[in-house]
Amino acid sequence: MAKFGKERFPYHYQTAVGMNASLTLHENSKELVRILKQYNVLNSDSKVFELGSGPARNLHYINEEFKTNNIYCSDLFAEASYNSMSDTIKNIVTFYEGDSQDIIDNNIMQDLDLFLVSDHFMHLQYEKADYIIKMILKKWNPKYIMLRELKKEFETPEHPRLFHNYNQILQKYNLVIETTSKQDSSYFIWLLKRK
Q1: pLDDT tens digit string along 151-182?
Q2: Which of 1, 43, 80, 187 could join 181 in a cystine, given CB atoms 3.0 to 4.6 angstroms apart?
């Protein structure tokens, strides 16, 4: 039986994906930053939100490159996330604890420069991810969306690592870049800009 949420990712999971994560995960974060830099997406005034951020490793590298202090994120366990976070991010992040669907419904930010989702949608049920994507498009409307998620051909529903209908984003956003992750060819990276 497939497990989701806290059953799949208990409190202690954060230690594996924060600042003490594997070199591969750090390289994943740096790859996202290189793309953001290449396309001039962010600067020191930018406002960034990451859904399902864990201990905000991606945001650490975003802050390191762009020096933005307007950083927001969410995950299931605030305390566990903070325990594996860089000191820099601990001091500036606004963290929302909870289920991703609840976060999307109850903490709408309409002035975001970047909405980031990395290796997160694949861990959500089909209906939940679809609902969240629709709400991002309907209520949040960030200037840019960046996704790093599993490709369809590598989907493993029993694990689960799921692929979702990301093409619906193209109704309101143009693809700036579509590429395969250099760290793992089973993942795609999309950078999208609001039309």
Answers
A1: 999 998 878 888 999 999 999 999 999 999 99
A2: 187
Token pair recorded at residue 77: 């366990």
Residue for token digits 């795609």? Answer: 188
Question: First CA to last CA across the chain, in angstroms?
Answer: 40
Q: Does 16 have pLDDT greater than 90?
A: no
According to the model, what pLDDT value does residue 71 have? Answer: 97
Query: Cα angle vertex 176, ends 190, 43, to 5°?
Result: 95
CA distances from 164 to 7, 68, 131 (A): 21, 30, 11
Provide the residue range defining the domain that includes 29: 5-194
DSSP, res 139:
I
Q: CATH number of the domain that 37 lies in?
A: 3.40.50.150
